[in-house]
Every structure is written in structure tokens, then in C-alpha cells.
Design brief:
four-stranded mixed sheet, 331 residues, single chain, 10 helices, alpha+beta, elongated, 3 domains, Methyltransferase, Cobalt-precorrin-4 Transmethylase, Domain 2
Amino acid sequence: MEFNIDLKELSSRESERVEWKENGDDKFIVSSIVKTISAFANDISNFGGGYVVCGAKETKDEFGFPKVLYSGLSAEKLKEIEGKVLQHCRDYVSPSLAPIVKELDNPKDNSTRILVFIILASPDAHTYRDGESVNYYVRISKETKEARNGILSQLLVKKQKLEYFDKRISSNATESDIDVLLFRDSIQEMGLFHQGKSLEDYFSDREQIAELVPPLFVRNSLTGLLQPRNFALLMFGKKSSITSFFPESHTIVSIYKGLDRSEPTAERHTLTGSIIEQAKKAIELLNTQAYMAFDKTSSKPNQVKYPIRALQEALINAIVIEITKFHNQLE
């Protein structure tokens, strides 16, 4: 694959895709370059990779706009940095990386060169070993950062090294944490119950309740025991179990008498239990607000205050959004 690099064009690209390194005098320069190379390969922002340009630095002009200064590298320094970086990519990055290397003329000084490492997005999640520390790195805005907590989980899920939160096994939960009556009533209401299948069929690591839904249970590879996935516990779990495993999993419904929350009084309901139970209870509370309003001064005096369908859709959308935030916090 041929890459034609235009330094002027690179300088106008998003900073997320280009890292500028002035020289190789810093003893940590190689480590810094390789961390950035692994971050571009991890490509958490879906840019397709990036460029590390050695022998140039990014500054600002008199108006505060980005500007690149080309200091260049001597032939000796260029070969030194290239050799060390490629060696580190082989020895300290796992899986190893082999960035494409380009050597360009310095537009400001013919006696020096500009070294460019071209990194393509990788299907793997790469770590960099720095001494005894082994970490994942990602590109966040203009900086290379160690991937931690939710960012690390996002990276591993993206690279298919980690299952999405809802599909993961619920740690320490067992079959006894599932509310059998709630499960049976719920799948019957959803039209997913089959007369030819027993409860044991559903409570297994083989049977799916719907075509695109994975089995509710996973067999623990260490203990051999069947354990529910997180989504199974959140949807069909006993109230006490959900409160124990996911104490922040609740819905708050506030009802204000006036136009906004500045009113001195309001109703506040904290709903717990499974997501299905929370949604049903919340809809019941909202339905009480969807009454017929009589306005004798209007040409249409009999109007529903709030359409029930609109309230239900708004509620479910809000729950989905909050579940996503909740999952990200747990990551």
C-alpha cells in the first residue's frame, strides 16, 4: 500500500490523528512515541489510525491558531529513533506492531529530514509494557492517555475482548436470585412463552427467549455452575437480589403540581425491583396524569392533558438512557 504524505496537509488535520515530536533528545521519547503508536492502533475514536511526525512541533501563531515548526532530524538521529521505535513496537507492544515508516524532506532545512510513522487501526487491543507496568493506551483529544475504568472497558468491548455489560455473567448471582413468577408472567405477556418448553429449558445456557437474545444463563467456567447474565437479573431478578447486586438500580418519578419544579410541593416516588416492575409502576403513576381536562374557555373544552402513548414512550426512552449511563458507571 502506497502512502503519499503531505506535511502541509497533515498540519491541517485533526490533532486527534497527528502527534508531533520535535526531536529525540528526551530519553523518554521512544517510549512516548510507541505509547502513541499503540494508542492510534487501538483507535478507540474510529479515526482509522494516525500519524506520529518526528522532527516537528506544534505551536501557535500570533493569533492563537495551531502552527507547525519543522526542526528536522539529522540522518544519525533519524535512524536512531526509527530503529529504537520499531524495536520497541516488536518487543514491548503486545500484539506486536509494525508501523509504516516514511522519510520526508524538511521544507525548512535541506540538511535534515522529517520522520513519519503511519499507524493503521488494528482489530486487536494492544498493550505497551513499560518496565513492570503493562497498560492499554488510547487517543483522547490531542493526548495519549492510559485507558482506565470505563474507557478500558469500552476499548475491550470494541475489540471484542470483553462482552457488553448486559451479556456478562452476574458475579455471585445464582438461579435462586431470579423471580420465577415474574419471569413466567413477563414472557407470557410478551408472547415469548412456548407451551412445549419447561422452566428448566429457559433457565439454561442453551435456550433463548427470543431470536436475538442470548441465553439467560451462563455456565461458570471455573465452578461449572449456571449463573444469570446481568440483563436476566435486572429484568427478572428478585427485588432483594437486584438491590443487593445493583443498589443504584431504581427509578425516581417526580410529579409537580405547577408548570415546573420551582413549585413548593411535589410528589416523589422511588421505584425499585426489576426494570420491568419499575417501568410498570412508573407508567401507572403517569397514567394518573393523563386525565381529561375541561376548559370552558376553549373551543375544544374536552382534551386529554397528556397523551398516554407519549408519556409511555418518554418514560421508556428515559429508562433506556439511564440504564446506559448506569452500565457505563459500572464499567
